[in-house]
Amino acid sequence: GSLALLEGEELIGILGFRTARPRHAENLLPSIEALLAGVEKTIQDVEAFAVAIGPGSFSGLRVGIAAVEGLAYSLDRPAVGVSTLDATAHRFRRRRGLIVALAGAYRGDVYGRYYTSDGERAIPGGEPRCVAPERFLDELPESPELIAGSAILKHRALLEARYPEGVTLEEPSLFIAEEIARLGAKMLARGERAPLGGLDALYIRPSDAQLNQKDATS
Questions:
Q1: Same domain, residue pair 205 and 185
Q2: Residue 151: phi, psi to the nearest 5?
């Protein structure tokens, strides 16, 4: 995971961390404190929050969203949720052409969305989907200039075979929090904010618990 702190448009702090999933919750708040201490700030100095809402690890999303909702409530600060696919594409917004954000999902599927870049923005096309990678690629409106995200780690051979003429493949960044923060700041500037308790995870598909319950009752 990662954390980032903006002051205006300037990135003044960023921190990446790797933790085992069961320890993610207990390490998140100390990591926030460490980030703030490193730039001589306190949590009271934070004017607004942005948090990744997925798609991604269901347990990880719940931890991050719950932490931000708790901080926003206790400090009376606004908060917004940002799609990890949108943040991935935003990182490459200056690359003209079709950009694809592709994240690994369960059972061999991918989370995906495509974007058109005009050199300044990554403009989303269509809704985010969770499908087999072959199907997602088949339904793209044109060949992409760049594909980015965690799905590359598993599906690189498929992507290279699909685009033998060459396409830029970018593996996931550990520091996606910077893009979450920048997109969140744009949303807040437009007056967007989540209602109290209204940050919802972008699951796209049911969690394993829901799938198991469905299997048990079918």
A1: yes
A2: -65, -20
pLDDT per position as a tens digit, 53-72: 999 877 888 899 999 999 99
Look up residue 200 and give its amino acid: D
State CA 126 to chain mean position distance: 17
Enclosing domain of residue 52: 2-84+174-217
Q: What SS3 class is residue 111?
A: strand
In whole angstroms, what is the distance from residue 143 CA to residue 163 CA?
8
The pLDDT score that the predictor gives to residue 56 is 80
Burial of residue 22 (number of CB atoms within 10 Å: 0-12, 13-18, 19+): exposed
Predicted model pTM? 0.88
Identify whether residues 210 and 103 lie together within a single domain: no
Where the chain has pLDDT below 50, the residues are 206-207, 209-210, 214, 218
Per-residue model confidence (pLDDT) at position 215: 52
Do 143 and 192 share a domain, yes or no?
A: no
Domain count, the chain: 2
End position of a domain, from candidates 170, 188, 207: 170
